[in-house]
Amino acid sequence: MLFGRRKKRGDPLQERIDCLIGPGTTIAGDLIFTGGLRIDGMIQGDVTVSDIKAGTLVIGDGGCIEGDVRVSHVIVYGEIRGTVYATGLVELHPNARITGDVHYDAIEMRAGAEIEGHLVKQSAAGETQ
Q1: Which residues contact 4 (CB under 8 A, 6 or more apart)?
Q2: Distance between CA 13 and CA 114 in Å, rounded?
Q3: Confidence (pLDDT) at 18
Q4: What is the per-residue pLDDT for 108?
Q5: Vertex 93, ends 74 and 38: CA angle to 5°?
Q6: Which helix (H) or strand (E) holds 100?
Q7: 32-43: string of b/e by CB count within 10 Å (b at 16+)?
Q8: Residue 67 — left, alpha, or beta (φ > 0 → left; ψ -120 to 50 → alpha)?
Q9: Cα(86)–Cα(111) distance, rounded to whole angstroms?
Q10: Which residues contact 125 (CB under 8 A, 6 or more apart)?
């Protein structure tokens, strides 16, 4: 179980983190990953999961992405400066900050989280509603 959430049948949530970008690390350039990725450092570029049906991105308290994010499931404690495209769930925790539009299938936003942009609900086929 990841962060107290149970995996449902067909849920793309990855229960493990396959890669960690630690605090104090900066990557300049686009990043493509598989499985689960946790970012506690800085990414200056787009972050994309290679298989959009199954990939979880966790952005830690000190983590920041300056670029677009394309994943199935994203959990944000830190900051994203760019557009988010999530085919599944977007979880925003109290200190989460997103400056850009958020395209989502489902969203969970805790008190204190901020979005400076538009919320765009997607249908199951990934089309904008």
Answers
A1: none
A2: 23
A3: 87
A4: 96
A5: 40
A6: none
A7: ebebbbbbbbbb
A8: left
A9: 21
A10: none
Q: Which region holds residue 92: left if phi is over 0, alpha if psi is between -120 and 50, else beta?
A: beta
Can you tell me the distance from the alpha carbon of 122 to that of 107, in angstroms, rounded to the nearest whole number?
A: 11
Both structure tokens of 70: 């394309």
What tens digit of pLDDT does each residue of 21-71 get?
Answer: 999 999 999 999 998 999 999 999 999 998 777 789 999 999 999 999 999
Q: What's CA 54's distance to the chain center, in Å?
A: 12
Distance of alpha carbon 7 from the chain centroid? 17
pLDDT tens, 91-112? 999 999 999 999 999 999 999 9
- Of 124 and 59, which is predicted with more confidence? 59
Torsion angle (degrees, nearest 10) of CA 115, 15, 24, 66: -30
Whose tokens are 């904008």? That residue is: 128
